[in-house]
Amino acid sequence: MNYTLNFAAVWRNFDGLINGLVLSLGLAVVSILIGAVIGLVVAFALMSKNPVAAMPARLYVTIIRNLPILVLVLFAYFALPQMGVRLDKIKSFVLVLSIYSGAYLAEVFRAGLLSIPRGLTEAGLAIGLTSTQIRKSIIAPLMFRNVLPSLSSTVISLFKDTSLAAAIAVPELTFAARKINVESFRVIETWMVTSAIYIATCFLIAFGMRFIERRLALPR
Amino acid sequence: MSQSFLDQLWIARFVILNGLGMTVSISILSIIAGSVLGIFVGLALAYGKWPLRLVVRAYTDIIRGTPVLVLVLASYYISAAAGLDLKPFSAGVLALAIFCSSHVGEIVRGALQAISKGQTEAAKAIGLTFGQTFTSVLWPQAMRQCLPAWVNTAAEMVKASTLLSVIGVAELLLRTQEIISRNFMSLQFYFLAGALYFVVNFAIERFGKYVERKTALPS
Amino acid sequence: MAKTILEINGLRKTYGQNEVLKSVDCSVEEGEVISIIGSSGSGKTTMLRCVNMLEEFQGGTIRLDGEEIGYHVEGSTRRRKSEKEIARQRALTGMAFQQFNLFPHMTAAENVMLGLIKVKKMKKPEARAIAEKWLDRVGLGARTNHFPGQLSGGQQQRVAIARAIAMSPRLMLFDEVTSALDPELVGEVLQVIKGLAADGMTMLLVTHEMRFAYEVSSRVIFMNQGVICEEGDPKEMFVKPKTERLAEFLKTSSFN
Amino acid sequence: MAKTILEINGLRKTYGQNEVLKSVDCSVEEGEVISIIGSSGSGKTTMLRCVNMLEEFQGGTIRLDGEEIGYHVEGSTRRRKSEKEIARQRALTGMAFQQFNLFPHMTAAENVMLGLIKVKKMKKPEARAIAEKWLDRVGLGARTNHFPGQLSGGQQQRVAIARAIAMSPRLMLFDEVTSALDPELVGEVLQVIKGLAADGMTMLLVTHEMRFAYEVSSRVIFMNQGVICEEGDPKEMFVKPKTERLAEFLKTSSFN
Amino acid sequence: ADGSKLDEVLARGKLIVGTGSTNAPWHFKSADDKLQGFDVDMGRIIAKALFGDAEKIEYVNQSSDARIPNITTDKVDITCQFMTVTGERAQQVNFTIPYYREGVGLMLKADGKYADYAALKAAGSSVTISVLQNVYAEAMVRAALPEATVDQYDSVDLIYQALESGRADAVATDQSSLAWYMTQNPGRYKDGGYGWNPQSYACAVKRGDQDWLNFVNTALHEAMTGVEFDTYAKSYKTWFGKDLTPPQIGFPVEFK
Ligand SMILES: Nc1ncnc2c1ncn2[C@@H]1O[C@H](COP(=O)(O)OP(=O)(O)OP(=O)(O)O)[C@@H](O)[C@H]1O
Ligand SMILES: Nc1ncnc2c1ncn2[C@@H]1O[C@H](COP(=O)(O)OP(=O)(O)OP(=O)(O)O)[C@@H](O)[C@H]1O
Ligand SMILES: [Mg+2]
Ligand SMILES: [Mg+2]
C-alpha cells in the first residue's frame, strides 16, 4: 500500500499512553484483588451442599459471566446513581470489574478446589481443626497452587478488560490511545504501539505468574 | 419524542433482530473457523517439533496478549495494507477467528497432554499410524475433555463480537447504538442488548451442558 | 479392672436405605490394642470414622472417657453438638488413614505442628520440639524438613502417625494404614505401631494383615455385614474360630 | 528344530548417559513362553518396548521372522524405517501393558475392533465377530458392550489382552500385566495367559509372579543391570541358580 | 492505477462514501432503518454530480476512528462524517471545501440547578461538563468555563446520558447536535446561550489526486452557490431547521 507510517503523533503523546497503562494496571490490580476475595467466598459457596449458599452463588456466576462487561459498566455508572448509589467513575469501574472478576475467579477456584482430595479435609478434622481452620491452612494454599496455571490467563483477560473503562471516560490505556487517534488520526500507528504495550504487559504478567508458580512449586 | 420505550422497541424490532442475527452469524462463523484453526494450533503445541512449537507458541502468546479490539482494527487495516481488500465483515470474522484459535489451541493442547501416554502406546502397539491414533483414540477423548472450556470460549466470542461495531459491522451493539442515536434511550436499549447477549450465551451454556451429558462415558 | 476409654452402644449408621452398621456394641479399656478384621464392605472403616465423627451416625452413642461424642442424647431427642465442640472431641482421638493424607504443602515437621499450634494453641518452638521428638520416634529424625512429595510411602505414613500421636490422643485409630504401601515398605510402618503398642497406647486398628493382628492385638473384633460377629483373644480366635463366618473369612485371608 | 521367531542381537539402549540395555542377545522360537524376571530397573520393560518399537534403540538389531524391526542396518549406517512401515511391524507383535491402556471412549468390543478395522482393513461385521470370539475366550462374552469405566481391573486387563491377541500377532508381549490389579483379580488374568500358552502362542512376559513364571514358562530369562545374566529352564534355575545375583534376587522375591 | 479516482468511480458506476450511523443530525438511521442526515446528503449531492442520480451510492459504515484510515487504505472514495478541518489532519488527507461551519454550545437541563452560561461560570469548579472525547476537549471547555471539571465520553448518547443521570451539569458539544437533541426532546432541556470554538466541517479524500478533489469541490461549491442550491437548502432546512437565503445574484460571492 502507499500508506507511510508516521509515529510522530504517538511519540508526542507517549506520556499519555504510559500514564494510561499505569492506571490500567492499578484498576486491574485493585479489582482482581477484590475479585479474588469474592471469588474465594463464592467458590466455597458453589461447593457447598447447602442450597441457600450454592444457589445464589451459581446465579451470580451464571449471570455475570454471560453479560458483556460493557453493559455492566454502563449500568453501574448511569443507572446506579438513579438508585441512590453514586460512585465516581473510577470507583464504579472498579466495582464492576471486581464483580466481574469475582465470577470468573470463582469458577477458577472451584476447579482448584475440586482437585483437592477429600482425605486432606478429613485429616484436618481428625486432628481437631475446625472447618474454617482447614480452609485457611490447608485448602486455600493448595487450591491456590492448583489454580496458578489457569489463573494466569484469567488475570490477563481481566487486565485487558480494563480497556472497557474508556467507555465512561476513565483515562486508562485505551482511552489514551483513542485520544491520540481523534487528535491525529494516526490510527494504525497508535494501535500498533498500544497493542505492543498491551502484549508486553501481558507477557510480564504471565512471566510473573510463572515465577510465582515456580517459587511455590512443591519439592518432590 | 414522547413515545415510550415499548413504542420505540416496536419500531426497532426488525433492526434489533437483524443485529442479533448478525451477531449470531459472526459468532458462529468465527467459532467454527477459530476452532478448526485452533485444533491445528493445539496439535502443533502438543506434538510439534520444537521450531514449529516455538512459532506457534509465539503466535498464541501474542494473540492472547492483544486486546481483541486491536486485533479487529489490525485485521481490517493491515489486510488492506497487504493488498487483501477484506470487507469489514470478513475482516472482523477473521480477527475473531484468530483470537478464538489461540484460545482453542491452548484448550486442545491441555486436553491432549492430559491424555495418558499409555493411550498412544496402546494404539501404536496394535499398529495404528499417528493419524489413525489421533482421529480414533486421542481426539475423541480430548474433545470430551475440551468441551467445558470450549463452551466458555464460545461465549467469549459472542461478547467479543461487539467490538466489530468499531469497523462498522452492523451487529447487535452497533444496531443498538443506532437506535439510541435516534431516540436517545440509552439505558433501556443497552440493557435490552445486555439481556439478548445473556440469552444467547445462556443458550450456548445450556447446549454445552447438554452435549457434555450426551457424550459422558458410562462408568 | 482397667479404666474404660471408649464405649460404643447400639451404634447404627445408614447410607440412605443401606444399613451399614446395625447396632454395634463395643468397649475399649485403657492400653488395649484391638484389631478389627472382616471382609470388604463389612463396616470396619465406617465404625472407625464414626468414632472420630468423620461420619454422622443415626443411632446409638459413642462415649470417650464417659463423654458423649458428636451427639447429645436425652431421652428420645438427639442433638448434634456444635462444630467447635466436635472439633475439640476429634482431637481426643488420633487417626491414621490408608491414603496417609499428609498436607502436601507442609514439611513433615509442619504437618505435625499444625494441630499443636492451631488446636493446642502452642507456641511455634514448643510445637517444633514435640514434632521433632515424634518424628524421631518414628525414625524420621533426619527428614523433618522434607515435603511429603520427597518421602516414600512408608515414610509418609510414619509422618501421618506422628502427626496423630503428637496430639496426645486418648485413643489411636488406624484404618488399613499399610494397604497403599509397596510390600517392602509395610514392615517399617508396622514396626512403629508395635512400638506404640509396647508404650501402652490404646489403639483400634482395621487391618488385613492377619499375622500382624495376631501378634500385636490383645483382642480381635471380627465384623460381618455391619455387626460384630465374634470377638476375643487372637490366639484362640485365629486357631479355633467359633463362627462359621470367621472360619470362612480366615480361610480366604492371607494368614493361612 | 522349531522356527526362530524373534532374534535380538547386541541390543543397546541408552537414556542420555544412562546405558539401560548393554548388548542384549536373545532368540525366541515358535511356541516358546519366556518369562523375563529381574529386579526393578534392570531393563525388562525397556527390552519389551524395543521389540515393539515403543522405544528407539541405539545399537544392535531385532528381527521378527527374519525381518529387521525399526531400523535398516547396512554396514555402519543405520536408518530408521518409515513411520508407516514401523506401524505395520508393530502390528506383528501384540502388547499388554501394566496399566491396561484401554481406550475409555470405546466399548470392550470397539477396543478390540479398532485395530482390525484400521490396520487389517476389515469390514465392521467381520471385525465384530472376531472381537466377540476373543472376548468370549477371555471370559467376557457378556461384557462386549461395556465401557472400560464399567469394568473391574481384571476385566479391563483381559479386554486389553483380547485386543492384542485379536490382531493375530506372531508374538505376544506382556509387561507386568497383573501388577496394577487387586490380589483377588490377579488369578483371572493369569488364567487367560495360561490358556494362550496352552494354545501354542509365542510369548515374552515380564512378571514379578515367580510362581506363575515357574509354572507357565518354557524358559526364564533373568536380567540384571541391562544384561541377560542367566537363562534356562525354570525348574532348574529357580531351584539351583547358577549366579550369585539370581540366588539373591530369588531370596527377596515372593517365590520363597 | 495511474488514472484518477474520478475515472475509477465513473467506471464503477457508483460512489463509495464513508460515514457513521450514530450521530444525529449528521448521519443516523431513520425508524425504517435508512441512513440519513446532513453528511449523508452531501454524499448524495456528489453522486448526483457524478451520475445524475443521487441513488448511485454505497455507504460504508465507519467509526470516528476509521475516518482517515479508510481513506488512506482505499476502503472509501470519500469520507463525509462531520470531520473538523485541522492542519495535522490535512497532512494526511486532502480536505474538500467546507460544507458547514460549526460552533460549540452548552445545553442544560430545563429544571436543573443552573440557569445559563453565566450561572455555570459563576459556580466555578463545582460544575462538571460532559463532552465528546477529543484531544482538545479539555482546552475547548476551559476556553468558556476555566474552572469546570471535564468528563469525556466516546459517544454522543453517553454525553447526554451523563447530563440526564446528573453525572454532568451541562453538555458541551456541536450546536447542531444540541439543536437536534432539543427538538427531539422538547421542554426538557435548554440552551446555555453561549457559543464558541468555531470549526469547519469538510469531506476528505486521499492525498495526491487533484483531479478527484477538484471534482468534489466543484460539486459541493455548486450545491452551496449554484445549480444544486435548492438541494443543499432543503437538506439544511431538514436537519438544522433554518431557511437559507439564496446566494446573491451577480458578482460571485467568492471574490468580494
Ligand atoms: N459414602 C458412602 N455412601 C454410600 N455407601 C457407602 C459409603 N461409604 C461406604 N459405604 C458402604 O458402607 C459399607 C461399609 O463400608 P466400609 O468402608 O465401612 O467397609 P470396610 O469394612 O471398611 O471395607 P474395606 O475392607 O473394603 O475397607 C459398604 O457396603 C459400602 O459400600
Ligand atoms: N523415559 C526414561 N528416561 C530415562 N530413563 C529411563 C526411562 N525409562 C526407563 N529408564 C531407566 O531405564 C532403566 C530400566 O528401566 P525399565 O523400566 O526397563 O526397568 P524394569 O526392569 O522394567 O523395572 P520394573 O520392574 O521396575 O518395571 C531404569 O534405570 C530406568 O530408570
Ligand atoms: Mg475400609
Ligand atoms: Mg517394568
UniProtKB/TrEMBL annotation, chain A:
State the GO CC annotations.
Answer: ATP-binding cassette (ABC) transporter complex
Q: Where in the cell is it found?
A: Cell inner membrane; Cell membrane
Residue span(s) of domain ABC transmembrane type-1 = 21-209
Q: Which PROSITE patterns match?
A: ABC_TM1 (PS50928)
Q: Give the GO biological process terms.
A: amino acid transport
**By its UniProt entry, which Pfam families does this protein fall under?**
BPD_transp_1 (PF00528)
Which coarse location class describes where this protein primarily resides? membrane
Give the record's family classification.
Answer: Belongs to the binding-protein-dependent transport system permease family. HisMQ subfamily.
**Function comment:** Part of the binding-protein-dependent transport system for glutamine; probably responsible for the translocation of the substrate across the membrane.
Recorded protein name is Polar amino acid transport system permease protein
UniProtKB/TrEMBL annotation, chain B:
Keyword Protease listed? The answer is no
GO CC terms, sorted: ATP-binding cassette (ABC) transporter complex
The record describes its membrane topology as:
Multi-pass membrane protein
Domain of life (superkingdom): Bacteria
CDD domains in the record, alphabetically? TM_PBP2 (cd06261)
Record key words, sorted? Amino-acid transport, Cell membrane, Membrane, Transmembrane, Transmembrane helix, Transport
Pfam families xrefs = BPD_transp_1
Query: Can you say where in the cell this protein is located?
Result: Cell inner membrane; Cell membrane
The primary location reported for this protein is membrane
Segments traversing the membrane: 20-46, 58-77, 184-204
Family, according to the entry, reads as follows:
Belongs to the binding-protein-dependent transport system permease family. HisMQ subfamily.
What PANTHER family has UniProt attached to this entry?
L-CYSTINE TRANSPORT SYSTEM PERMEASE PROTEIN TCYL (PTHR30614:SF0), MEMBRANE COMPONENT OF AMINO ACID ABC TRANSPORTER (PTHR30614)
User: Under which name does UniProt file this protein?
Assistant: Polar amino acid transport system permease protein
Q: Which organism is it from?
A: Rhizobium metallidurans
UniProtKB/TrEMBL annotation, chains C, D:
Instruction: Give the main localization category.
Output: membrane
Tell me where in this chain the ABC transporter domain is found: 6-250
Q: Which SUPFAM superfamilies does this entry report, sorted A to Z?
A: P-loop containing nucleoside triphosphate hydrolases (SSF52540)
One annotated GO molecular function:
ABC-type amino acid transporter activity
Q: How does it sit in the membrane?
A: Peripheral membrane protein
- Which keywords does this chain's UniProt record carry? Amino-acid transport, ATP-binding, Cell membrane, Membrane, Nucleotide-binding, Transport
**A single Pfam family, by name?**
ABC_tran
Q: Which GO terms describe its cellular component?
A: plasma membrane
Q: Where in the cell is it found?
A: Cell membrane
Query: Which InterPro entries does this one have?
Result: AAA+_ATPase, ABC_ATPase_HisP-typ, ABC_transporter-like_ATP-bd, ABC_transporter-like_CS, MetN_ABC_transporter-like, P-loop_NTPase
Which family is this sequence assigned to?
A: Belongs to the ABC transporter superfamily.
Q: What is this protein called?
A: Polar amino acid transport system ATP-binding protein
